[in-house]
Specification:
The complex is a heterodimer of chains A (434) and B (935).
Chain A: H1 22-27, H2 32-39, H3 42-52, H4 64-69, E1 78-83, H5 92-99, H6 101-115, E2 119-124, H7 129-144, E3 160-165, H8 175-182, E4 207-211, H9 212-224, H10 226-230, E5 233-234, E6 237-238, E7 240-247, E8 253-258, H11 264-269, E9 283-287, H12 307-312, E10 321-326, H13 331-345, H14 351-368, H15 376-387, H16 403-428
Parallel strand pairs in A: 1-2, 1-4, 2-3, 7-10
Antiparallel strand pairs in A: 5-6, 7-8, 9-10
Helix pairs in contact in A: 2-6, 2-9, 3-6, 5-7, 6-9, 13-14, 13-16, 14-15, 14-16, 15-16
Chain B: E1 22-27, E2 30-35, H1 40-46, E3 70-73, E4 80-83, E5 94-96, H2 100-115, H3 131-139, E6 157-158, E7 163-165, H4 175-183, E8 189-192, E9 199-202, H5 214-219, E10 225-227, E11 240-245, E12 254-260, E13 263-269, H6 282-286, E14 301-304, E15 307-310, H7 313-331, E16 337-341, H8 347-361, E17 366-367, H9 376-381, H10 387-391, E18 395-399, H11 403-406, H12 408-419, E19 424-429, E20 441-444, H13 450-458, H14 470-480, E21 485-490, H15 498-511, E22 516-520, H16 526-531, E23 538-539, E24 543-544, H17 545-556, H18 567-574, E25 597-601, H19 605-608, H20 612-621, E26 624-629, E27 641-644, E28 653-656, E29 661-665, H21 678-688, H22 698-708, H23 717-720, E30 729-730, H24 779-787, H25 803-807, E31 832-837, H26 845-848, H27 851-854, E32 862-864, H28 866-872, E33 879-883, E34 888-895, E35 903-907, E36 929-933
Parallel strand pairs in B: 1-5, 16-17, 16-25, 18-19, 18-21, 19-20, 21-22, 25-26, 26-27, 31-35, 32-34
Antiparallel strand pairs in B: 1-2, 3-4, 3-5, 6-7, 7-10, 8-9, 11-12, 12-13, 14-15, 14-27, 23-24, 28-29, 29-30, 31-36, 32-35, 33-34, 33-36
Classes of the chains: A alpha/beta (434), B alpha/beta (935).
Chain lengths: 434, 935
Amino acid sequence: MPVTGAPKIITGRIGHADSHTLERYLATGGYDGLRKALAMTPEAVVHEIDTASLLGRGGAGFPAGRKWAMLRQSPVTYLVVNGDESEPATFKDHLLVERDPHQLIEGVLIAAYATQVSQVFIYLRGEFALGLERVQAALNDAYSHGAVGNDIFGSGFSVDVVVHPGAGAYICGEETALLESLEGKRGFPRIKPPFFPAAIGLYGEPTVVNNVETMSNLPWIVLNGGSAFAALGEGRSTGTRLFALAGHVNRPGVFEIEMVKTTFRDLIHAPVLGGGIPHGRELKAFIPGGVSAPWFGPDEIDLPLGQDEVADAGSMLGSGSVVVMDDHTCAVRASWRITKFFARESCGQCTPCREGSGWLEKIMERIETGNGREDDLDLLLDVCDNIAPGLTWPPQQTTICVLGPSIPSSIGSAIQMFRDEFLVHIKEGGCPYG
Amino acid sequence: MVDRATTTEPAHTVPPDVAEGQVTFTLDGRQVTARKGEMLIAAAERAGTFIPRFCYHPRMKSVGVCRMCLVEVSGPRGASLQPSCFVEVAEGSEVTTDSDKVKKAQDGVLEFLLINHPLDCPVCDKGGECPLQDQTLAHGPGETRFVEEKRHFEKPIPISELVLLDRERCIQCSRCTRFAAEVAGEAQIDFIGRADQLEINIFPGLPFSSYFSGNTVQICPVGALTAVPYRFSARPWDLDQVESTCTTCSVGCRVAVQSSSNRVTRLLGIDADPVNHGWLCDKGRFAFESVNSEDRLTEPMVRKAGRLVTVSWHEALDVVADGLRAATKKSGGPGGVGVIGGARLTNEGAYTWAKLAKGILGTDSVDAQLGDGLPAEVVLGLPRATIDEAVGADTVIVLSGDIREELPVLFLRLRSGIVDGDLSLVELSPQATALTPHAAVSLRYLPGAATELAKAIADHGAPAPATADPTDLAEARRLAGADKVVIVVGRPSLAEDGALVAEAVQVLARALPKATFLPALRRGNVMGALDMGLSPGLLPGRVGLEPGRQWFTQAWGKVPDERGLGTTEILESAGGSTGGEGARTDKPHRNGARVRALVILGADPLTDFPDAGMVRRALAGADFVVSVASLPGPLSAHADVVLPVAEAHERPGTTTNIEGRISRLGQKLVQPGQSWPDWMIAAELAVHLGADLHLDSVAEVWDEIERLAPAYRGITRSVLDTPGATDGVVAPLTVTAVAFSRRPGSAPLDPIAFPGVESVEQQGAPPRAGLAGARTAGIAANAANAANGSKGAPEVGAGTSGDAAVTNQPPQLAGPFEITVPRVVPTDSYSVRLVASRRLYDRGAAVDAVPVLAGLIPDSPLRVNPHDLDDLGIGTGGNVKVRTATTSLVLVAVADPSLPRKVVATDFNVPLAEGTVADLIDATAPVTELRLETP
């Protein structure tokens, strides 16, 4: 069965044209989860999230409940929502922000109550023009509705939420760079240790940083119980997840799918999902979890969409972005394109990423444009090794943040899977795909 | 960019000898002990393992961005590569700095740094002392694997008058931006762009105008930032160097003076822990160009038939001796000679001139201050604080001029105490200063009314002055009641009599008996000159004329019969004034002995004395003017004799800073032509006066100072030359004073910024037969002697008459004192009071003779309270006419809301729209009052 009968936990409302309005939200059970949470103790809310085994949807997949529990005790704590979704082919939060902003806000309020935080910042990618407008409008409506602000719904709990637009840097999706940016500084990531946000976060205070999708799951979990969420999926990967399917498929888009119960084959080929590869072409490779992830080939297509399952196979589910490449795709050019992105978006703070990303991009360009040399493959891998020593997965790093070791993923995969194709580029002095 | 509040302190500031909280870890298989919280890179360095690095600087917060210092550190998930500048040592951790993995990572980082580096080492100032070059040779690949085109930027671009930026060479280590933001507090340079287009730059149209910009050149680990004066002037391997002390102001920053072909090429800040932490101000760093000036005086000159003509020293000194004798005779006493200046001299020079003036000529009209200081007895009689004590205090009360303008590196230290430490600052000032934004409380006072404000702080029942906010005053009172209070005292305005400030200081001293004081008198060695007795009523060693009479009469044969005149009174007397003007009732020249001859020691009162008219009258009225100078200034036109003198870096000796810290001056150059050091001129002049000072070398002078000057007792040459005393010894010597010495193992120069010049020669005075071995027991023994006070058993040399004299050693000054304070009587209710403040760059010789600095001298407007400006109907930027009883100037007015009503301010010795502020100030008046009018 390609698609399970799991409920639409976070995309149930988006079929409506007015899904972003308070009216539609209230008409479809909006803020009931918050009211229920406020009637519970914060500990009970955390317990529900723990029971749900909600893994973070931002990329690292860390359990949300455990993240909250790690928050250092302090008189001042913050909750920051990471909505700086900027990686190529990743566009699931974009949908939630534009189409169901109240669900995000309600989730945020539940999280704030559970962690007893009174100040929340929602950091949204600056290019989300409509999303920023809608979240701000929804927030204003939520304030008017009494769901945000002083003594929300008469519960005695008060919380303020501020929406902050990013200024166009991919690196600000890295949580510590995001905090720097929020503080008004350059988006340079901080060094962990010691700057784990749960210990030393925004303005030096303990801070929870959660992803938009993670937050959007909370109303449903509180209303339906953590067990109901945990009943979906399998193992640690519970509930449903959004997958942003891109590349060579007939129906690219965002799909909410029950975890583990569905495979990459289903996602790519099921008529209600990807709908297969166009023009009757064959699958050459796919990226299972965003452009930072190592690639998979046709042999891995039957892997289930589960966090641990994909990790065990040597890549990651990451941000839930799946990119499909058909057999007319030039692996060198695809990898070069990804490298180019990282080379433009490296913040420049630390040496291996600043210099290495640009160097790798230049070598890839050379190979693709017919100026490659025979020892370029060794050079590429050695430069990659100087950014991510050992080229292991999960990677080690010589850099401050994980942007650095994200760069070698596509290059390493492309060389490993399609070495001959590189050699053809080098020997024939150009791209065989034209 | 890391959050300041949560970073640990730099490893360098952790004393290695603290046993408490030590941790033991394994470094490459060895057991190493370090202090808890110390950074790995510093702990390893002390243990003898130098981990390569670029961005790490021991005086700034770690950022861990260059990644050169990656080492393997054991952790819960096995060993991983960690930046050793950013990881604290942890008990039991295992650190590997020499594994293949570490080496590969470090080599990789180096290769990354080099791919876009232009490798233009042959035309780069940094070549030969470049950490990138050196570490490439040590760790880097022999050949490049990078075949693409490198990053290109326009090179170099000026980011200020002093600093050039070559972005192609930059390795983005952020040392410069962190210095500007964290240390200087002026983030005028920052990163622009990202990825491999990340560059350092200024903000559009706003130059890097910080007074501390030269430090970024010094700490830049590549040749990205270069200094205009040094650019292409030398190669590091051709440079000779000596460790010395900067005497541009009285903070006493330690420096390495580097020279080539008998020219100073560069000054580098040395990391003296108690003083400057390696930092210098740009004036101190670049003022050496005046020493190299083509205009230096090289031969003695005597005025003949109206023209200065070159003569021999013998003839010149004969003329001087005759002139001084004639003046003494004509005035009927030694008071006929006035000696002005001396702050530019070494301690040895100042002592020798004091001995000549007071012991041979017998005049007490000697003053190293130029009407811009405070009464010397008050300053020397206050219990003294060190800079470290001020920075580490609970509260610092500042009653002085703008510290950033006058004593720039003291500003850095105090700012650091506030920003990085727990210091609270209370500022008492007639106008806002650079410290105002850092002050817990900044209280305003009307010029002339400092005492009223001091009393309001000291006495909780006293009325609050109208200029001080009552809430702020209450907070100031609370902060003044803290346990550790240090009071910084200087001259907030040159248009306000120093005695008025001294009175306020004494009010605070009486009210806060536990407080200690740091003088903010700014002239180079003014503290040493005062300590040597170059002030009326004083004798060497912080001794009053009367208490020291017997001691110094025995040693010198004679001392002045009575107290003499200060600079203002000397000039007034020389100008023919009979006194009696103003509010003062006891003018010191009451006996009518008019000053006929002026000896001016390395000063130019024509531009550097607050009252220009008084100086012109004095020079016209004096019979005989001797200028001891290194450069021809405006004074030469008035001098009958000009004696060429050796400058900084050309003379060995010692200097004394605001703390009373005595440190060695290094001699790096041979003085030009026939110029002589000051002490030698005084000693030879004595011979021409038929006397003998019995001083034949700098070392002999020092030995006599140590023997005779009570405050300097026990600070022998061997004490000064003790390795731990390189950063100086605070007088008077106490056991704790030497605890502030440079720590063993700490590098005076940041070893990666100047890898080639780690060790700095220490140049003491040459040993003298018979005495060199006399005190070799070291500091502890001498400290023990000093602890016994004046009843110790110092040895007695030639010139004293035996043990009896030693036991009669006079007491050092201890205040408070009765001083004569003029009464301030407002002229009328329409007048405004003038504040004349100092700027770092002014038309003094240290700046004016230095081309790169001369362009930085600002044009100052007249700052006026905006309401007063409104009352005049003048907009900011408009012209205002300023009138005194004798003159009027049209100046540009700007609004300054920091000023109290009826107070206007401008700057001293800088160009105004018309004239200078010295045209307005009446040095005989307690405060200068003006009328403002529409022009």
